[in-house]
Amino acid sequence: MENFTTLFFELDSTVSVDSKILSINNYLNRSTHKDSIWAIALLLGKVPKRTATTFELRTWRCDVSDTPDWLFEESLKITGDISETIAILLPQPQKTLKISLSEVVSQILSLKNSNEQEKKAIVFDIWDTLNRDSRYLFNKILTGSLKEISSNKIIIKALAKHLNDPETIISHRLMTPWSPETVTFEKLLKTPDSSEALSKPIPFYLARSLTVNIDDLGNTNDWAVEYKWDGLRGQLIKRQGKVFLWTRNEELVTDRFPEFNLIKKSEKDNFVLDGEILGWKEDKSLPLSALQKRFKRKTLNKKLLSDIPVAFIAYDLLEHNGKDIRHLSYVERRKKLGILIASFSPNSTILFSDEIKFSSWTGLENIRSNARAIGAEGLMIKKINSAYGIGRENSDWWKWKSDPFNVDAVLLYATRDNSFRSKNFSSFTFAVKHNDRFVSITKASIGLSEEELIDISAFVKKNTIESFGPVKSLKPELVFELSFEGISKSTRHKSGVIIRLPKIERWRKDKHPHEVNTLSDLITMLEHYG
User: For residue 192, is it within any domain?
Assistant: First the structure.
């Protein structure tokens, strides 16, 4: 358990991808496969079902701790977390026995069929064995509330490095339904699957953001233009009757989009398509926030599939019936793509990305300014004679995104850094005016300098109205300019709106809080561009 505790807090204390990968590899090198399979499962969010509640833990800790209730409540106000508070206030462990992660989880699973007295005895025994940090993790696993502190992509990279296998192969192996209760590390990650080669995606060709004057691109006849849709870039692969869907980050997400599995029976050709996964309803794109719901839900029920149907907007054809055609020009590949999609069934979820007709760069600029009206986030500009490359090789492909929205907002809440031990403030909640009060609209953490973070932290300490654990409610005095790329309706937020990819552009020390934008301003944006 100590090894996993060390790993958890190492991951929690850094934002460096390389450091996280190194920590995971160090853990795998020093741990047994029994522990490793559970560690990977927990990091991927496969936490066992809750076998005890925080209320039960709070009640039971009274039997082993003489801490008065008032001290517990005051400590809870500071930490904001019952599991952490209990871990801190429990007496020092008396046992020196080392217990592994797999043994701890095995004990947690055994509580399913235990009565309350048996549960208490097991929990007390483990509390008396673990140090403070390990108790915190034990409490979190026990109550099913362990947070995710590393992305799936980082875990896949670490496993690929540890096992000396390609990341795509590791993704494929982790995609299949599995449980650490029924599968071993060797069986899951070391046993080849016959379909691994079939699933392998082609490296994505990435466009550069347009940094030159549009007129400098030269003759408009040398370029083709499509809409840049606000979805998830992906590759849809059909080989030998099997279908695979990859994101640009090389995450295998076939299970999140069962609609595309129908392709196995309805289309006879084999192919690799490059395109965009979109929420698509009544021939219109849905906001990216809607599509993300498909990722957040562990199970896809009929209502969710009905409310958020999807489509794959195909940009390019990279492989057809086993033949790699990336060397062909963009125009040739697009012609073959059009013929292929035209052969699909009428109710196919694969759609062709239409080319935009334009006669001048000025005219194209006008088209870009209206891209949001149809749910696109800008334009893609591609040289007609370009082959399909790898990465961001040259200037054959450009992305020309719509200008971001801007809004002035007041700082309303500050949140301490996510790290378990950190006292810094790194995440901030901003609000706009609505009648005689302020309503929060978004959280943002990107855009401030180290010096500004220090100054804001000093302000937080002097101007806190209320504390909710790591969250501080502040006097509404500081104004910031925020930029963001999209806005959509939200039933979960009091403001009724949610904004996408917010960034703190600058600290508006020249503005008074009552000069910030209003909720009506955002509603107007929503009506025009949401």
Answer: no
